[in-house]
Specification:
InterPro entries: Inositol_monoP_metal-BS, Inositol_monophosphatase-like
Shape: globular
Protein name: Inositol monophosphatase family protein
Pfam family, one: Inositol_P
Bound molecules: D-MYO-inositol-1-phosphate, calcium ion
CATH topology of the largest domain: Fructose-1,6-Bisphosphatase, Chain A, domain 1
Number of helices: 7
CATH superfamily of the largest domain: Fructose-1,6-Bisphosphatase, subunit A, domain 1
Distance between the termini: 44 Å
CATH architecture of the largest domain: 2-Layer Sandwich
Structural class: alpha+beta
Largest sheet: 7 strands, mixed
Number of strands: 14
Keywords: Hydrolase, Magnesium, Metal-binding
Number of domains: 2
Strand order of the largest sheet: 3-4-5-6-7-8-9
CATH class of the largest domain: Alpha Beta
Length: 266
């Protein structure tokens, strides 16, 4: 069955705005918080409710589509053949809880493993980054230009500062060297937004030692449309099923940072 991508983009965008409105409303009251794999790995009732909102909408409108979300609302193993929605209902849950800002909804639609539509919505700033494969990337409807390169020593890189003090992190030394050599480092606490910031030239690159497909699925599509590259630390393609390292940046910087700092297998 052929897919009407423009219609799908419109529907997904409306759902993202509706979900953003729901999240905003929850900020007025108390929110139930639990931890998952460790005391700092947090999830709230809002993360779960927003994932369920998308799951139900998709099931109703497109029952043949698959669904992959961080909070595991769908009980089936999604297939990557056909159309699959990869969703992080709140990327930056820690920010959502502690700051009530600097978090995003991340929605990606892939078809036969090819990224077609990516949406990253900063709910509190009302900034929607979106991309449609082959048609460009946009911020609130204004097309993002192809990115401009800067030399490494003038680059500002997104990185969770904890990675460079983590004794057990195998990339600690290469990341320390990188932090020393670039112009500066920023840590925003939302991988999706940090990827969108690379695409919109607010950052030159973003690195993470551990991310999952729902963190980067939409970001990859947006980055691709402005000529940026997203891969693992060795430069290999990112997986849509497994977690791992992520390095997103402008293309020349990507080659340079992989060859000088992080490309070696640890
Ligand atoms: C997290 C954020 C954070 C990144 C973590 C992610 P979550 O996602 O993107 O910036 O450093 O690795 O897990 O749990 O808030 O959706
Ligand atoms: Ca999480
Ligand atoms: Ca996430
Ligand atoms: Ca999340």
């Amino acid at each position: 069955m052929s897919v009407d991508w423009l219609e799908l983009e419109k529907v997904a965008t409306n759902w993202v705005y509706e979900a953003g409105h729901k999240i905003k409303k929850t900020l007025a009251g108390p929110i139930d918080i639990e931890s998952k794999s460790n005391p700092d790995d947090l999830v709230t009732e809002v993360d779960r409710a927003i994932e369920a909102f998308f799951y139900e909408k998709i099931q109703e409108a497109f029952p043949e589509h698959y669904f992959l979300g961080e909070e595991g609302i769908s009980d089936e193993e999604p297939s990557l053949d056909g159309t699959v929605w990869i969703i992080d209902p709140i990327d930056g849950t820690m920010n959502f809880i502690h700051q009530k800002q600097n978090f995003a909804i991340s929605v990606a639609i892939y078809h036969n493993k090819v990224g077609m539509i990516g949406l990253i919505y900063d709910v509190m700033r009302d900034e929607l980054f979106h991309a449609h494969r082959g048609k460009g990337a946009f911020l609130n409807g204004a097309e993002l230009p192809p990115v401009k390169e800067r030399p490494l020593h003038e680059s500002v890189i997104g990185l969770n500062a904890r990675w460079v003090v983590e004794e057990t992190n195998p990339y600690r030394n290469p990341l320390k060297a990188l932090v020393r050599d670039v112009r500066s480092i920023r840590s925003y606490g939302s991988a999706a937004l940090e990827m969108a910031y690379v695409a919109s030239d607010r950052l030159d690159g973003y690195l993470s030692v551990q991310l999952s497909p729902w963190d980067y699925a939409a970001g990859m599509i947006i980055l691709n449309e402005v000529g940026c590259v997203a891969s693992n630390f060795q430069g290999d393609p990112l997986s849509l099923t497994d977690s791992g390292t992520l390095f997103a940046s402008k293309p020349h910087l990507h080659k340079e940072i992989i060859s000088i700092y992080i490309g070696e297998e640890y």
